[in-house]
Structures are given as C-alpha cells and as structure tokens.
Amino acid sequence: MHYQGDLDEQACAQVLHNALAAAGSGVAAAALLRVADDPALGLDLDQWEHLHRIATELSLRVVEDLGGANGDGTTTADDRPAGPAAG
Fold first, then answer.
1. Is the pTM of this model over 0.70?
2. Cα torsion at 69, 71, 73, 75 (round to 10°)?
3. Contact in structure between 24 and 60 (CB atoms under 8 Å)
4. 10, 42, 50, 68: which has the highest count of C-beta atoms within 10 A?
C-alpha cells in the first residue's frame, strides 16, 4: 500500500475506494444470492436463474463458495480429491 503512513484525507479516501472496489463485486454477488433465495419474494425459476447468472458474472468464486463447491469449511484443499467424485 503506497499510502502507508500518509494521513492526508485524499490518500485515505483513495485507500477506502480501492478496498471497496476490490470487495464490492463479491459483496454484490452474495447479496444477489440472498435475494434470489428469499422465499418471501416468490421468484419464479427464470427470475431466480437471472439473479444467479448476474451473481456469477460478478464473482464466480463467491457463488461457488456459498454453494459449497469449494468445500464445506471442514476440509482443506489437500483433503479433497483432485478430480470429480467417483460414482
């Protein structure tokens, strides 16, 4: 971070902007998934798929993580098989 140690207001604003820009797409993707999965909204399949498609375009990693594609949090990458599950 090249602004480290600089207390200038503009530098602080730039750091905040950069942090939000880096996290923003993932946060937006997670929010869209929450909205899509809210039963109170009564979305039809097309609406649900549309929101999931937008979320995936924003952050595939977040969609995969929240969907469990990258494990359930109880295993590490070394514990999971390298290929598809047998069956």
1. no
2. -170
3. no
4. 50
pLDDT digits (tens, 9 = 90+) for 51-83: 999 999 999 999 999 888 776 656 555 554 444
2-5 contacts at long range (C-beta below 8 A, 24 or more positions apart): none
- DSSP summary character for residue 73: S
**Is there a contact between 15 and 3 (Cβ–Cβ < 8 Å)?**
yes
Return d(Cα 19, Cα 3) in angstroms, integer: 13
Residue whose structure tokens are 């809210």: 38
> The tokens 């609406």 sit on which residue?
47
Q: For tokens 């909205």, what's the residue?
A: 35
